[in-house]
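To: structure subgroup
Subject: Chain for Friday's discussion

All,

I'm putting the inputs and outputs inline so they're searchable in the archive.
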Amino acid sequence: MAQQENAPNKPVHLMFLCGAIVAFYLTQWTVDWIWGYFVRTPDEFLVSVGSAIFAVVGAVLMYRSDRYYFTANEISAELSKVTWPTPKEVRAATLVVIIMAIVSALILGLFDLVWSQLTEVVYG
């Protein structure tokens, strides 16, 4: 396997771990949903074990694949270049979004009130 020597391994390992966890839950829910159409109560233990095996095997195969590992290393390297906002900037942006949502709701509520009054006058 031609893995990069100076690649950040912790984020890459975390990516594969999170991918395996997501694959486990998605597989479990999908199998449970499909199996539920054919059998009244699917065996939860079998569904969980099968989903876990599928997720672990898939994660290990993807981890050992040079293509997926190299892509994960590239993603990790690019994310390390990102300038992340400070907590103060996040709070300020969140406050702006909340205020704009409230203002938009008030404007739409006002339009709805005017329109309902207008239609009441017209249709009467």
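Points worth raising on Friday:
The first helix runs from residue 9 to 38.
The radius of gyration is 25 Å.

D.
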